[in-house]
């Protein structure tokens, strides 16, 4: 009896450790409200195969596209924009009116990651939301506070990642209720088996990349 009790306690101790390994998330941080330290030459992809070059960046508060207009920084009006490329390695696609980075691709299907400020945590860390003008943009689209981009403390601005799939041009959130309708009939059983793996998670980028094989 004592051995059974011992084994039961051991299993109960191991189970939370396994779940913690699956769910543990390290908070990413940035020292500036912009994705890149400086504005970069970017190729802004538009509808009908058109494109233009601009000095651009990504605003981390919401993932919106910013561009230089003379000596001013403005938020891009994204109607007619489908994405933006920063060199050959950082490709973004539009999700709603903001930008999400392409982190995996198979054929015409993509896994996208939108990185934004974790505003609840940021407010908590800045004593109830003081100094939130750090992230304000005027109605006219002018970005404020560029002369003081760097946060005073060394901790940095807390970030969070939100994932999406672009499936044959249709963008959906990366969750089971949205994704399951796109799983190929011959992969339904494999999809069910994958979800039962407690080390697989909808919040884990590596796990989500595996799903491109099910489309």
Task: Give the helix/strand layout.
Layout: H1 2-23, E1 28-30, E2 40-46, E3 51-59, E4 64-69, E5 72-75, E6 81-86, E7 90-95, E8 98-106, E9 109-117, H2 119-125, E10 157-167, E11 170-173, H3 176-179, H4 188-195, H5 205-210
Antiparallel strand pairs: 1-10, 2-3, 2-6, 3-4, 4-5, 6-7, 7-8, 8-9, 9-10, 10-11
Task: List descriptors.
215 residues; alpha+beta; 22% helix; 34% strand; flat
Structural overview:
Helices cover 22% and strands 34% of the residues. The protein has 215 residues and is an alpha+beta fold. Strands 1, 2, 3, 4, 5, 6, 7, 8, 9, 10 and 11 form an 11-stranded antiparallel β-sheet that branches. The longest helix has 22 residues, at 2-23. The chain is flat, with a radius of gyration of 21 Å. The model is unreliable at 1-23 and 139-149 (pLDDT under 50).
What class do helices, strands and sheet pairing give? Answer: alpha+beta
Silhouette = flat
Query: How far apart are the termini?
Result: 50 Å
Helix fraction by DSSP (H/I, runs of at least 4): 10-25%
Uncertain segments are 1-23, 139-149
Number of helices: 5
DSSP strand tally:
11
Mean pLDDT score = 82
Beta strand %: 25-35%
Q: What integer value in Å does the Rg equal?
A: 21 Å
Q: How many strands, what sense, and barrel or not for the largest sheet?
A: 11 strands, antiparallel
Q: What is the string of SSEs from the N terminus onward? A: HEEEEEEEEEHEEHHH
């Amino acid at each position: 009896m004592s051995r059974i009790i011992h084994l039961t306690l051991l299993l109960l101790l191991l189970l939370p450790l396994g779940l913690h390994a699956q769910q543990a998330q390290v908070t990413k941080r940035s020292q500036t409200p912009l994705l890149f330290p400086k504005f970069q030459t970017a190729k802004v992809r538009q509808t009908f195969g058109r494109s233009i070059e601009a000095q651009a960046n990504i605003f981390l508060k919401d993932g919106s596209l910013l561009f230089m207009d003379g000596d001013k920084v403005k938020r891009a009006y994204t109607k007619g924009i489908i994405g933006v490329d920063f060199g050959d390695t950082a490709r973004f696609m539009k999700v709603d009116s903001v930008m999400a980075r392409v982190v995996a691709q198979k054929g015409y299907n993509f896994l996208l990651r939108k990185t934004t400020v974790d505003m609840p945590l940021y407010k908590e860390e800045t004593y109830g939301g003081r100094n939130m003008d750090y992230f304000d943009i005027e109605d006219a689209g002018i970005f404020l506070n560029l002369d003081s981009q760097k946060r005073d403390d060394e901790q940095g601005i807390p970030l969070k990642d939100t994932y999406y799939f672009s499936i044959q041009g249709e963008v959906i959130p990366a969750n089971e209720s949205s994704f399951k309708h796109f799983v190929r009939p011959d992969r339904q059983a494999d999809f069910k088996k994958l979800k039962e793996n407690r080390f697989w998670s909808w919040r884990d980028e590596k796990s989500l990349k595996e799903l491109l094989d099910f489309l």
